[in-house]
Each structure stands twice: as structure tokens, then as C-alpha cells.
Amino acid sequence: MSLQLVLTSLADPTGSALLLFGEMFALIALAQVLIPYGLPVTLETAKQATAPALAEARKNNWTMAAAIVDTGGNLVYFEKMDGTQTGSVAVAIDKARSAALFKRPTKAFQDTLAAGGEGLRVLGLQGAVPVEGGMPLMMDGKVVGAIGVSGGTSPQDGQCAKAGADAVK
Asked: Is residue 15 within 8 Å of 103, Cβ to Cβ?
């Protein structure tokens, strides 16, 4: 930070807060750039991620839909438990696509939006789904795709998505 910028920010606390927020946003964006994409998830790996996600749902008597997408957000595998609401089909795919394209869990968008204020900008990001239940699939420190789960509450969807994402190494 330059001396002039420091003096300006001291004279204008609101400007200082906006500057700080802007710097934090830039650091978050930089961190996302540093997480590279790997080779796209295979069908076999997609099935390995889906099984524990839906097992977690069954264990808790929840009905869920689970989608796996590749690094470009293209559907690789999908499974829906009997009795799952039909609206969860598209939501699971959208959550997975959001997590893959933005290289972060959809809960990050949910939390940003819930904070209000500047966080409302999330609503303007095309393809960003601000509802928990989408998680990137990581192998060797690289994003290879993502899982999206829908059918329960946001925390339930997130719990099942985490079970699936944790199965991929």
C-alpha cells in the first residue's frame, strides 16, 4: 500500500473498508487460480464418488439425487434415489456444475450471500449456485470434476456431497 493510499484510507474509513474487502476478494480469487484443473473425472471415479454420497443419504433416511460433472461442468454420471423430488434432478446437476466451474464448494457462495451487503453480488455470477451441496472432486491437488447432491436441506445435501468428495483421492 502506498503512503498516499494509507493516508486516504485513514481519512475515509468507508473507503478503507471497501479497499480491504477488495483485497480479500482478490486473495480469494488468486487462491482459486492456484488450484489447477486435472484430467477430467472418469466414469469409474464418478461412480466411486456417488456411492458413498447416496449411502450417507440412505443411512439417514433421506432421498437424494447425485450428479457428477467433469472439469467443464459436463454431466458424467447421475443417480436418483426412488422417491426423490423431481426438482432435485436439475438442482444436483447445477450444484455440481457450479462447484466445478468455480473450483469451490457451493456453500462458499451460500455463506457469501448470507452475509448480505457486498455478498449480494453472488447473485450476478452466471452459474454460481448459492446453496450447499456442491463440492469439487480433488485428485493429486487438482480439480477433476465435482459432485452435486440435492433432495434434503442444505446441510443434509452438503453432508452427502462431502461423503462423496472424500471418497475421491
From this structure: no
- Of 88, 81, 96, the C-alpha closest to 133 is 96
CA distance 130 to 95: 9
Each residue of 10-63: pLDDT tens digit? 444 444 444 444 554 554 565 566 899 999 999 999 999 999 999 999 999 999
Residue 97 contacts residue 89 (beta carbons within 8 Å): no
Q: 147, 49 in Cβ contact below 8 A?
A: yes
Q: Tell me which DSSP letter residue 122 carries.
A: G
Q: What strands lie across the sheet with 134-139, from one edge to the other?
A: 75-80, 65-69, 142-150, 134-139
Among 40, 48, 103, 32, CA closest to 74: 40
The amino acid sitting at 52 is P
DSSP state of 42: P
Beta bridge partners of 68: 77, 147
Domains of the chain: 1-34 (no CATH), 37-166 (3.30.450.150)
